[in-house]
Specification:
Elements lengths: L1 H17 L9 E6 L7 H16 L4 E6 L7 H9 L5 E5 H7 L15 H8 L2 H9 L5 E7 L4 E5 L13 E4 L3 H9 L3 E4 L5 H6 L5 E4 L1 H6 L2 H4 L2 E8 L3 E6 H10 L3 H33 L3 E3 L3 H16 L3 H11 L2
Helix pairs in contact: 2-12
The chain binds alpha-D-glucopyranuronic acid.
Keywords: Signal
Protein name: Extracellular solute-binding protein, family 7
Organism: Sphaerochaeta globosa (strain ATCC BAA-1886 / DSM 22777 / Buddy) (Spirochaeta sp. (strain Buddy))
Length: 329
């Protein structure tokens, strides 16, 4: 009888110690920052990413998502990631360009003909080159997320490019973005994302520029109800991990480094789907809230492109070559 009992005990203990996936406590907890709120496509995709990682590491690694800029503005998060204080984050290309100036090429206005063109580029060799090129500063790029096209919106009616002249427009903390806006005859002010609503309300700025979901999610439509659909920038988002965090992941299991990249890419496909739905929803919500949309006509679009031409003329040889390849993709 005693023998039988002993065998049962051995089997039960063996069963539980072999089943790592049932371990209650993660061996590693990583902090992931996003400056958007719950419900926003990038945050929902980050939650999905966390679930994939939990499932595929058998619960050994947990990703804790911190939305709403609770860990700081994008620039603050970036600085903390470089020193290993925050493990992962989702950044706008507009913020990243300030740290990785070579990304500026991807930020050029009217670089892509449409969203499909952008994804052909980002899903191909050029996208991989930039994603994997974001190393050497303590952080590594894992996957692209969609962020649609950015347009201007203002407190006062906007008929065409000339209406922007003399206005004070908020831009991301990115010098090339300031330059772009100044080429249109407006004055650029760099303000963190979370402070734009109050800057609009306090009349510190006349307008800003962003994609439709951000415009509505941040209530900017309440303060700046004139939306000029010029779609000047298409700035994707990038999911990043710090080199420090990547080493911790590898210490648990070296194969998890690639697993993270794979999960991030999968969450990227999920985010793209959510993005398209959210763009439509945001447009309807903006319309219902009384926003006036202006679509530039052909002449106006030509004038916009012409005003921004110096940005293309100032490119170096290598950048020109990449722009040409993008055009042919
Ligand atoms: C988008 C992007 C944010 C970014 C913001 C901005 O909303 O998703 O990450 O901070 O643009 O204009 O600052």
């Amino acid at each position: 009888m005693k023998k039988v009992l002993l065998i049962v005990v051995i089997i039960v203990v063996g069963f539980f110690s072999c089943r790592k996936e049932e371990s209650k406590y993660p061996e590693l907890v990583l902090r992931y920052a996003d400056n958007q709120s719950s419900g926003y496509p990038t945050v929902e995709a980050a939650k999905y990413l966390a679930s994939l990682i939990k499932e595929r590491t058998g619960g050994r690694i947990e990703l804790r998502i911190y939305p709403d800029s609770v860990l700081g503005s994008e620039i603050d998060v970036m600085k903390q990631m470089v020193y290993g204080g925050i493990d992962m984050s989702r950044f706008s290309l507009g913020t990243l360009s300030q740290f990785f100036p070579e990304l500026w090429t991807l930020q050029l206005p009217y670089l892509y003909s449409d969203s499909e063109h952008m994804w052909r580029v980002l899903d191909g060799e050029i996208g991989d080159m930039y994603l994997h090129g974001m190393v050497g500063k303590g952080i590594v790029g894992l996957a692209w997320y969609d962020a649609g096209a950015r347009s201007f919106y203002t407190r006062t009616p906007i008929a065409n490019i000339n209406s922007l002249k003399g206005l004070t427009i908020r831009v991301q903390e990115n010098d090339m973005m300031s330059r772009t806006i100044e080429l249109l005859g407006a004055k650029a002010v760099q303000i963190p994302y979370g402070d734009v609503y109050s800057a609009l309300q306090k009349l510190r700025i006349d307008g800003a520029e962003n994609n439709l979901p951000s415009y509505v999610f941040m209530d900017h439509n309440q303060a700046a109800p004139y939306f000029y659909q010029d779609e000047h920038f298409r700035l994707p988002e990038v999911v990043m991990i710090s080199v420090d965090a990547q080493k911790k992941v590898a210490a648990i299991d070296p194969s998890y480094v690639e697993l993270f990249a794979e999960c991030a890419r999968e969450s990227g496909l999920y985010e793209r789907k959510l993005w398209l739905e959210e763009e439509k929803r945001a447009f309807d919500e903006a319309l219902q809230s009384g926003v006036t949309f202006t679509v530039p006509d052909e002449d106006d679009l030509l004038a916009l492109r012409k005003a921004m031409e110096p940005l293309y003329q100032e490119l170096g040889e290598r950048e020109r070559e990449i722009v040409e390849r993008i055009g042919n993709t």
